[in-house]
Amino acid sequence: MKQLLVVASVIGLLACSPQGVAQNDSSSFKRQHLERMGFVIESVNDSVIDGVYEVITDQGLVYVTADGETLIGGRLYDITGSEPQNLSEASIREMRRSDIAKVSDEAILYPAENEKYMITVFTDPTCGYCRQLHTNLEQYHKLGISVRYLAWPRSGLQGSAYQQLKTVWCSEDQQAALDAAKNDKRLPAASCDDPVDEHFALGNKFGVRGTPAIVLPSGEMLPGLVPAERLLSMMQNGQ
C-alpha cells in the first residue's frame, strides 16, 4: 500500500509537470544521504520532473530530489494519453541490457543452432518451473532462441540451492553439472571464485522475486515460465 501511495504521488507530480525532459544540473546532486543508507550510486540523470533525478543504484532505479533529501520509490507514468505510459521502463530496460552484457561471459550458455534471439534466465536447480524450462530447451532452440543462465538461489545465499549453484559454476563442464543438478544427480565437489553472489545481487537489482525470471533482448523481464512459441511472438513484436 505504501508503494502504491508513493507511485500515486509521483503520478500526481508528473501530471502537473511540463512536457519534455527537465534540465537539472546533476553535478550539484547531493549523494551523501543515499550513500549513508547503503546505496551504491551508478548514475544520475535528469527525470521528466523538474528538480527530481533518476538515479540508478545497486538496488535498482529510484528517484531523488536535487537536494538529495527525498527519495521517491515506484515508477513514473505519463497519464496524458488514452493509456498510462510507464516512463521508467526504458531506463530500467537499458540498465538490464548493460548489466547483462557485463556478466555475459559468466553465464552458462545453451545456444540454438540457428540463433535469432538470446534470452537470459535467472535459474535455481531446485525450482520446478526452472526444470520444466530446461527439459524443454529443444523447443526454444528449434525456434532460434538461445538460452543463457545466471544463478539466482531462491533461498538466498544459503541452503542447498546456493551450494549447488556454486558447484555448478565451478565445474569443469558447467552444462553437464547444471543438467545433473536439475535432475537431482549428485555433483562432484568443486570450488572456485564463483559469481553466484554477484548474479544473486544482480537479480535483486533487476527486481527478480522468483525463478525462472526471463530477460528478453529488449531488457524486458518476464516472471515465471513462458512457453517457447509465446516467447518468440513477444520478441518478434519488439518486446
TrEMBL record:
Keywords: Disulfide bond, Isomerase, Periplasm, Redox-active center, Signal. Pfam families: DsbC_N, Thioredoxin_2. SUPFAM superfamilies: DsbC/DsbG N-terminal domain-like (SSF54423), Thioredoxin-like (SSF52833). It is found in: Periplasm. Residues 112-234 form the Thioredoxin-like fold domain. Residues 31-88 form the Disulphide bond isomerase DsbC/G N-terminal domain. GO terms for cellular component: periplasmic space. It comes from the Bacteria. GO terms for molecular function: isomerase activity. InterPro entries: DiS-bond_Isoase_DsbC/G, DiS-bond_isomerase_DsbC/G_N, DiS-bond_isomerase_DsbC/G_N_sf, Thiol:disulfide_interchange, Thioredoxin-like_fold, Thioredoxin-like_sf, Thioredoxin_CS. Residues 1-22 form the signal peptide. CDD domains: DsbA_DsbC_DsbG. The keyword Disulfide bond applies. Its main location: periplasm. The keyword Isomerase applies. Required for disulfide bond formation in some periplasmic proteins. Acts by transferring its disulfide bond to other proteins and is reduced in the process. Belongs to the thioredoxin family. DsbC subfamily. This is Thiol:disulfide interchange protein. The lineage of its organism: Bacteria, Pseudomonadati, Pseudomonadota, Gammaproteobacteria, Alteromonadales. The gene is dsbC.
